[in-house]
Every structure is written in C-alpha cells, then in structure tokens.
Amino acid sequence: DAAQLPDGLQLYQHGRDDAHQRQITLIRDLRRAAQVGGLFLHFQPKVDLAQGRVYQAEALLRWNHPVYGIVSPGEFIPLAERTGSIQLLTAWVIEAVLRQLHSWNGRGLYMEVSLNISAEDLASLTLEQRVGDLLQRYLIPADQLVFEITESAVMRDPDRALAMLHRLRSLGIRLSVDDFGTGYSSLAQLRRMPVQELKIDQSFIRELDDTCGDAVIVRSTIDMSHALGLKVVAEGVEHGETRDLLRAWGCDTLQGYFFSRPLPADAFEAWLKQQPHL
Ligand code: C2E
Ligand code: CA
Ligand code: CA
Ligand code: CA
Questions:
Q1: Atom of ligand 1 nearest to the CA of 199
Q2: Ligand 3 (ion): which residues have CB within 5 A?
Q3: 166-175 as b/e, with b when 16 or more CB fall inside 10 Å?
C-alpha cells in the first residue's frame, strides 16, 4: 500500500492507478484526520472598505496528509462530499473556528469569521442544534459566525435547505451566498434565501477591468444586492486596480491575494497588526 510508505516515498509506476489509489487513500484517511489530527485552518482577511479596516475573515480548511503532505481542499472537499464524510469535516471546522474566536475574544481581538457549508450539512436535521450548543459552550455571540453557502447547495433540496437556513438565522448566525454568478443563480432563488451577504465569484473579479464584459455583470450585481439590502463581497482581488474599481462601484468588502493569502492564525494576527495596502 503506497500510502503506508514512510517519508512521503511513493512508487509511481502506473500513472492512472496511482491517481485512483490516491483517491481511495484520501477517502479512507479523511475521517481519521477529522478524529485524530492533520486538519488545520487558514484565515483570509475580508477588508471592509467603508471602515478601512479588517474585522472579518474566511476560515479555509487545510489538510496535512501523513504521506501526500498538504492536500488542497479543491481535491479533498469534493471527495468528502461524495463519500459522506463532509459533515464530520464541517463539524471539525465549526468547532475549530469557535475555539479560535474564543481565544481572540479573550484577548480583546474582535473578529467575525465565515466558514463554508456544503449541501449535505444543510440536509442534516441536527446542524442548528449542534451549532447552538457549541456557541454556548465557547460563549460566542452568534453574530460573530457567518455561514457561506452556494446556491447549488441549496438547490439540491431547496425546501429542506431553506428551512435549515431559517433555523440558523433564528439562532443569529449570518448567511452569505458564495460563488454568486456561477451555477444556478437566479433572482427568484436569491430572494427566497434569508441571507445578509453575497460574494461575487472570483472568476468575475480576478481579471476585472472597466472595459471588459465582466464589469457590467459586477456593477449590476453590486447595485442589485444593495437594492435587496445585502452587503457585497468581491473575492479574488489580486490587483490594486481591481480594488480601486470595486471601491468606485460601491462594493462593501474585498477579499483576495492582493491583501493577503489565507494564513495560519498566528500569521493572520501578525498581518492584522500591519494591515498593509488597504
Ligand atoms: P471558496 O469558498 O470559494 O474559497 C475561496 C478560494 O479562493 C480559497 O481557495 C482561497 O484561497 C482562494 N482565493 C482567495 N483569494 C484569491 C485570489 O485573490 N486569487 C485566487 N486565485 N484565489 C484566491 P482554497 O482555500 O483552496 O479553497 C477552495 C475551495 O474549497 C473553497 O472555495 C471552498 O469551496 C472549499 N473549501 C475550503 N475550505 C472548506 C471548508 O472548510 N468546508 C467546505 N465545505 N469547503 C471548503
Ligand atoms: Ca467560501
Ligand atoms: Ca467563493
Ligand atoms: Ca468555491
């Protein structure tokens, strides 16, 4: 079993078999990681343009596999979603975020942290109960927690998912539409979701300039969101010019490599003390 070899040593003799073997190994080891270790969080700042400061971040899951090393969430999250272990990972992320918020609150550092929720999580009848219990255990006000949800996750089973979103909302958790503009976006769907924030997908933002077609989409999405009473986040801001355009168009919050990559908690705290390029 290649996954059992020490020191990251792997025998790559059959390319396709190796890719398949890697998937099987990752699927097997994910549950173990959620229970025994290997998962950790990175935090990426979200810059509030009106206030010119950072009090929000997105928590992004990282996995250090004993053999493969750092595995990207783009690889292991879809595997976890397909094989029924995503709820275990989400539970781990929620608790890790609340533990971090507890530590920051205790040191007078106020942060609001968003985390990513999958379709299967919204189908779980116990999600809201479990989150409520954890908020109490870690003494965290619910409005310091934001759940990012894609429209396609809601579309999987809309009635059930919307019911869960309303229950989470009653707890006081804020909700954000992730990856807006991809997949099933529709105004009708958006109006049914009890959300406070909309994140424009990074595919519209990364190469943005004021002459491209994306500019029209981005500007009208910002205006539409405001008309619906939602805050707008642009993610994938990589250039100063993009920041300037989004600011001129009235976007509320920016996130992207231009400000900072996702960072481990201690590096994130150090970054907060500097807050360059805002
Ligand atoms: P996402 O939720 O859309 O998260 C944003 C992704 O864009 C992150 O990738 C982030 O590192 C990256 N990013 C941020 N700014 C920039 C930028 O300026 N340029 C570019 N090129 N990329 C930028 P990451 O951390 O690799 O996560 C990928 C996806 O994996 C996430 O997309 C999300 O769908 C999923 N994911 C990550 N953590 C979790 C988690 O805890 N739970 C769930 N269910 N999904 C997660
Ligand atoms: Ca997200
Ligand atoms: Ca996103
Ligand atoms: Ca995404």
A1: 3
A2: 178-179
A3: ebbbeeebbb
On whether ipTM exceeds 0.90, the answer is yes
| CA–CA separation, 181 and 184 (whole Å) | 8
Closest C-alpha to ligand 1, atom 14 = 256
Q: Which atom of ligand 1 is nearest to the CA of 72?
A: 26
pTM for this structure?
Answer: 0.93
For residue range 232-254, list pLDDT tens digits in order.
999 999 999 999 999 999 999 99
pLDDT surpasses 50 at 162:
yes
Helices (H), the chain: 15-36, 73-82, 86-106, 119-123, 127-137, 151-155, 158-171, 187-192, 202-205, 213-227, 240-248, 265-274
Residue identifier of the C-alpha nearest atom 42 of ligand 1: 116
User: What is the C-alpha radius of gyration for the chain, rounded to an integer number of angstroms?
Assistant: 19
Identify the CA nearest to 81 among candidates 119, 115, 114.
119
- CB distance 10 to 67 below 8 Å: yes
CA dist 207 and 74 (Å) reads 21
Neighbours of 103 (CB within 10 A): 13
Q: Is 93 in the pocket of ligand 1 (CB under 6 A)?
A: yes
**Residue 241: which region, alpha, beta or left (left: phi > 0; alpha: psi -120 to 50)?**
alpha
pLDDT in tens, 174-209: 999 999 998 766 777 888 899 999 999 999 999 998
Instruction: Give the separation between CA 95 and CA 20, rounded to whole angstroms.
Output: 32
Name all contacts of 123-126 with Cβ < 8 Å and 24+ positions apart: 123/156, 123/157, 123/160, 123/161, 123/164, 124/87, 124/164
